[in-house]
């Protein structure tokens, strides 16, 4: 895992990232502390990129992809907006890198995706039957599976498609992947209790999930583009996640962005493991905040019910009891949550960002690094897995100076490799 923090104001951007990476096998997880997660995306222009989660794209290290894009594809070309650099990178990934990924590897991810959906459908169906105290047979099991797939399909119809799949039709998907999916469904489709519409329902549900603007089942890579376009005076970032690629298309989703301006003049942007940075910015741990918000209505409802019980025992009029029972608790809870959110915004977030807006480049770098180190410390002194750690790399990007390393680890001895720094 990873902790990445960016701090932005009108003077520039500072980016800090730890060096921990987790490699998973069927038997264990291995954490190493030498991964590179910040990269210079142009030698001539103020552009950088940071990465978290999966460090490979279908077996090709992202580090290689970034460097070939920079040195071979982009070279000295530039774009007016940072967004256009990101769009050009996705075109490069599609037109150059994807052509080097074997078709078998692409179809292998579809197979894994289908297998996971099949497992989830069966597991959910069995749990539903067990919760109803039903001794299930094949007929009842398929009935629950069909209900699960139908509901899932309806849910994913509400999602938008990712950009490369906007015009992609289910007929194209079936031509590409139906053979491998049929092999995964073989044990179910050969069952005499299998409904005639099962295969069609499964395939349409799989298609909706796999083309939707959300990522499930597969490990994803987070990419954050930082910097300036040629026409931009102030910095910005664009945050994406990318998972699989198949049938000459790549599934990636834009999750967030921030463009500094005279009106929006500062931002603290944590990625991957964000809990510590968000606690500093908001004054409260987000999980704690969510727990309070989620349980507040329950507490109010219990309080109301206790009052009704007391009044009932005191022979209060039925009209009064019914009025209390029918009281809409959400009308009481919503204003309170709104007050808390406004208090956090005014007394924590705004005050911090008002300070960040005037920080120097050096202070932006110190702040970003400190937030990453605080995340490392929390993982170290708690029972959590130490999935954030190792040296912290720090870079600053400004309009005038471009991409500047403040701290950077090397896997080699600097004194033995002067030629590297002369290049």
What can you see in these coordinates?
The protein is α+β, with helices and mostly antiparallel strands and 423 residues long. The protein has twelve helices and 14 strands. The strands form four sheets. The protein has a five-stranded antiparallel beta sheet with strand order 12-1-2-13-14, with helices on one face. Strands 5-6-9-10-11 form a five-stranded antiparallel beta sheet. It has a two-stranded antiparallel ribbon with strand order 3-4. Strand 13 and strand 14 (402-407) form a beta hairpin. The radius of gyration is 26 Å and the shape is globular. The chain starts with a strand and ends with a helix.
Which secondary structure elements does this structure contain, and how are they paired or packed?
Blueprint: E1 3-9, E2 12-17, E3 21-24, E4 29-32, E5 38-40, E6 47-53, E7 56-57, E8 60-61, H1 62-74, H2 82-97, H3 103-131, H4 138-156, H5 170-189, H6 198-211, E9 221-227, E10 236-246, E11 249-259, E12 266-272, H7 275-282, H8 286-313, H9 318-325, H10 330-356, H11 361-381, E13 393-398, E14 402-407, H12 418-422
Helix pairs in contact: 3-4, 3-5, 4-6, 5-6, 7-11, 8-9, 8-10
Give a quick precis of the structure.
The protein is α+β, with helices and mostly antiparallel strands. The protein contains twelve helices and 14 strands.
Helix content: 40-55%
Portion of residues in beta strands equals 15-25%
**CATH topology description of the largest domain:** Glutamine Phosphoribosylpyrophosphate, subunit 1, domain 1
Rounded radius of gyration (Å): 26 Å
Q: Shape from CA axes? A: globular
For the biggest β-sheet, the strand order reads: 12-1-2-13-14
The CATH level-2 architecture of the largest domain is identified as: 4-Layer Sandwich
How far the N terminus sits from the C terminus, by CA atoms, comes to 32 Å
What structural class do the secondary elements suggest? alpha+beta
Mean pLDDT, all residues: 91
> Number of helical segments?
12
* Major pleated sheet: 5 strands, antiparallel
Number of domains: 2
CATH class bucket of the largest domain:
Alpha Beta
Low-confidence stretches are none
- Taken in chain order, the helices and strands follow as EEEEEEEEHHHHHHEEEEHHHHHEEH
The total count of strands amounts to 14
């Amino acid at each position: 895992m990873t902790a990445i923090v960016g701090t932005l104001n009108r003077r520039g951007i500072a980016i800090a990232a730890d060096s921990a990476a987790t490699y998973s096998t069927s038997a264990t997880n291995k954490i190493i502390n030498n991964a590179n997660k910040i990269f210079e995306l142009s030698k001539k222009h103020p552009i950088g990129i940071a990465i978290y989660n999966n460090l490979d794209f279908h077996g090709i290290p992202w580090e290689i992809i970034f460097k070939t894009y920079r040195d071979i594809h982009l070279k000295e070309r530039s774009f007016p907006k940072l967004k256009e650099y990101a769009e050009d990178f996705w075109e490069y990934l599609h037109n150059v890198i994807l052509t080097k990924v074997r078709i078998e590897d692409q179809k292998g991810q579809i197979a894994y995706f289908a297998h996971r959906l099949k497992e989830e459908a069966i597991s959910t169906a069995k749990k539903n039957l067990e919760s109803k105290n039903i001794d299930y047979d094949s007929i009842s099991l398929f009935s629950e599976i069909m209900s699960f797939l139908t509901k899932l399909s309806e849910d994913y119809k509400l999602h938008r498609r990712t950009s490369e799949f906007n015009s992609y039709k289910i007929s194209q998907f079936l031509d590409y992947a139906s053979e491998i999916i049929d092999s995964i469904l073989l044990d179910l489709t050969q069952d005499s209790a299998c409904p005639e519409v099962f295969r069609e329902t499964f395939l349409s549900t799989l298609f909706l999930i796999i083309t939707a603007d959300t990522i499930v089942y597969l490990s994803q890579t987070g990419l954050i583009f930082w910097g300036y376009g040629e026409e931009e005076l102030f910095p910005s970032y664009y945050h994406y996640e990318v998972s699989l690629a198949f049938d000459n298309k790549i599934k990636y989703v834009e999750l967030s962005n921030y463009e500094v301006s005279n009106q929006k003049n500062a931002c603290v942007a944590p990625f991957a493991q964000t809990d510590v940075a968000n606690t500093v910015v908001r004054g409260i741990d987000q999980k704690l905040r969510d727990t309070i918000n989620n349980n507040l209505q329950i507490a109010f409802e219990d309080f109301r019910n206790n009052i009704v019980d007391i009044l009932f025992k005191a022979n209060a009029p039925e009209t009064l009891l019914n009025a209390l029972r029918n009281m809409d608790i959400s009308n009481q809870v919503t204003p309170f949550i709104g007050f808390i959110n406004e208090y956090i915004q005014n007394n924590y977030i705004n005050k911090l960002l008002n300070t960040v807006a005037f920080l120097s480049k050096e202070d932006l770098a110190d702040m970003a690094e400190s937030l990453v180190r605080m995340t490392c410390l929390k993982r170290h002194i708690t029972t959590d897995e130490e999935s954030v750690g190792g040296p912290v790399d720090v870079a600053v990007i400004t309009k005038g100076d471009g991409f500047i390393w403040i701290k950077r680890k090397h896997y080699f001895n600097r004194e033995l490799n002067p030629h590297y720094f002369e290049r």
